[in-house]
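Example A, followed by Example B.
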Amino acid sequence: MLLIEVAKEFVATIDNKKTDGTTVEAKKQAWMALTNKYNALSETGIRTEKQLHALSELYKTGGRTFCPKTTAADKKVVALLPPQFKPLSNDIDSSAPYYTIDIVETQQLNDTQYSSREVLGAKEDSVHQLQQVKGSKRRTSPLLVSDITPKIKNLFN
């Protein structure tokens, strides 16, 4: 605790973020003065400037090494539940381009064997993902003919 008391008068110089020549020299002078004052008041023995610098870093970091906030178990949970971890769409957000949904363009074929009413009836129970995109609702998954064909056949049986 003595180091903290002694460092109070030097903290503005020691914790300065500038790295120009004048500031670096001022930091060296501050560490030398801090070391001299600490050793004059210390009852446990003489410490070097390097030792006091290391001790001050331990005080700043709490004496621990960096520990990532996410663990392997957290990553497994995120992998199992991806829909719950998708961010909300926000066009104003700076990271919005990273989370855009690609909308598949579709075209209507004139020579289909089923009417649009049959297709809509067959897909009515499986339309599940609609998302608000610039004021209109659009599907997030493309409509595939293979998805609807078995249901249409069941309609006629």
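Example B, a separate protein, is given below in the same form.
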Amino acid sequence: MSNYLSLMGGFMKKYNLDEYQKKAIDVKDGAYLCIAGPGSGKTTVITHRVLSLINKGVSPDNILVITFTKKAAVSMEYRFKNMIGLDTCMPVTFGTFHSVFFKLIRMYTKINVDNLASDKERMNICFEILKKLGYLQKYDKDAINDALNMISVLKNDVKREGEQNGYEKNGMLAMVSSEYATKILCMYNACLKEKGLIDYEDILIIMREICVNNPDILEKIQEKYKYIMVDEFQDINELQMDIVNRIVSKYGNIFAVGDEDQAIYGFRGARSDIMLRFKEIYTDSTILNLKNNYRSDSSIIDTSNKLITNNKKRYKKEILGVSNIDGAFAVKMYLNANDEYAFIRNLIVNRKKGESIAILIRKNIDGVVISNYLDRLGIKHDFDMIGHTMYKTGILFEVMKDIKEAVRSNKLYNVDSRIIGKLKPPRALEYILNAKGYNLRAKTSVMVADGIDILREDSRKFKTINEWIDYSEGILSIGDEEKIRDVSLEPYPVILTMHASKGLEFDTVIIPMLNEGIIPNRRIVTNDDMEEERRLLYVAMTRAKHNLYITARKSEDGKSFEISRFYNEII
């Protein structure tokens, strides 16, 4: 191990690790929760700790690092190998929950897990179920994804005694009746079984059953992975935690890294309260805190901290700025939307050479008007999510297809096409939405409702139906190779949802529309949901390195807007 030891000493100097990072890297046996705030260098800590464990005599193949996405796993493994030398053979396991458990099932059992249903198969199965139950008549990708997400939440939930299941506790999801959810889940599972298929959630379920019912296999897994590290621990769900805990139970060596203040995936079944119960789950555990934020200037750190401390369900922590620069922070209130957009335009036009700018929005619909505004001014920007993808698939594609048929066929829906063609786009849209039952579908699908909101917003930007149709057809003519770009390399300002911005950073961040109903979202039901909305705004704010601008409007099109309740928490 002497070679690894010399490597470790060199990297300590090379990366100039701070005292909090060194402390986290140096721990070995036991249970540790490492609270890693924005810009604190958590990936550096994880990769260095792997090397530190090896230096302390741990065999590389006894170390497991679990991440939540394939991209994160590949990136972390590459950074580790690049650190030690790409030609060095060191069999540390990096992977997602699904990929790791898939390999373990194949390694230690004869259970056939090669019959994984593809995404297309899962969507087709779900569509047939929704159609049979009368929820869908046509293939609707958005509604199907809603249902599949609901199924995933239900299948990943492990109830604790006396508790509701995670689906019922999730306020955003609880708006859909439990009868609807249970029926779809039962039919979905039955259909998979009939076709001899399993899905990714079944991998977790099978893995848990193995741990519960096969102690000999569990012991083999425990002997293989004596040291487990979990990244983005705030996003773990009950089923994942149950499996991890069973594997960890023999040696008790777990190193969990996360930040409950950045837990924004409750709608997917993530349970940030697991992180808050870490000391309860592992009674002899130690809490570590990476206090230094290397990303943001001091004013941004101070303001974001001021916001997040209003949440009750969190660890008390100190976040320190390393930068000696104050940075720019401003909250702007405008009389109307046009003034708000003009401010955004000025920031973009007057940006410094090479300055990265992101406009972070609550939902895709919130960026439609901004994108259209920048388009009219000829300002190049990246907003492919709406401008291209959503007009190519799902509810936008389906409705626009019906509008084109209504205008271009001789007669449709018992209304002369010439009449529909003469209607203003908003009125024509409402006619189609009612005639084809889209408004009814919106009541059971958040994605459909959001898509319809986007169409209503877009419809007001065109003088005639034909102009709108020409616009949508122009989008459809653009190939996928033209629309897919890496935003981290994008020289233009980007428009992203707050969720999509997680893990990214920009010189300047603009957060428009700090209004009630937008952030926080109008569909918020519970106090837990409200805390997640606050965390979402916190995540958006902490993407900024040097400049953070937050704006709101008092009115739009004669309609008054209420300022967000979060306004008073950040000024």
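On Example B: Residues 2-110+203-290 form a domain with the Rossmann fold fold (CATH 3.40.50.300).
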